[in-house]
C-alpha cells in the first residue's frame, strides 16, 4: 500500500501553499522596489546584504501573520483578552510541574497527612455510595490502616491529625443514613384534560 504524503498530491507532485507564495512574491517585489529607490543608484540583482535580507524577511513574516489574522486563525484563543498567567510574579523553577498538575487535575501527590484530611472530609459520601456492609467495613479498615501507617512514618512533613474512625459507630451511622427516606424529585399527578 502506498503511503500518503500530506505535502504532495496523489501524483507525487509537491503541494504548494499559494498564500505563502503570494506573500513571498509581494515581499520580494517590495524589496526590489526599496533597493531601487534606496540610494538612487542601480544595484546588482544579487543577494542583499544581511541586514537588508533580515528586513525583507521580517516584512514577509509580517504579511504571513496579517494573512493569518485575516483568515481568523488567531480568533478564540484560550487566553484572549486575559492577562498572561504568571507575568509579574517571581520566577518559580517548578512552574511547569504546577501547571501540569492544575491542567491535568492530578491528585494523590499531596503529603499523606494532607491527603488523609481530604479523604476524611469526603469519607461519609464515599460510604453512602456503597451498598454492602462488608464493603463499608473494608473501606473503614483500609482508611484506619492508612492513618496508622502515616503516623509511623519518619519521613517528616506535616503531622497526622486525622483521627481514627470507630468502625462499629460508622457502620451504624451508615445504616441510619440508608434507612432515612431519600429526597427525590416531586412528581405531581397528571391532570386530565378538560375535553376527556
Describe, in short, the structure shown.
By secondary structure, the chain is mostly helical. It is 52% helix and 0% strand.
Question: Would you mind describing this structure in some detail?
Answer:
Helix 1 (18-38) crosses helix 2 (50-71) and helix 6 packs antiparallel against helix 7 (167-179). This protein has seven helices and no strands. The longest helix has 22 residues, at 50-71. It has 196 residues and is mainly alpha-helical. The chain is 52% helix and 0% strand.
Outline: elongated
Task: Give helix % range.
Answer: 40-55%
Query: How would a crystallographer describe the biggest sheet?
Result: none
Distance, first to last CA: 69 Å
Write down how many β-strands occur, each being a DSSP E stretch of 2 or more residues: 0
Can you give the mean pLDDT?
79
Structural class: mainly alpha
Rg measurement, Å: 35 Å
Order of helices and strands: HHHHHHH
Number of helices: 7
The stretches of 5 or more residues where confidence is low (pLDDT under 50) are none
Work out the strand percent: under 5%
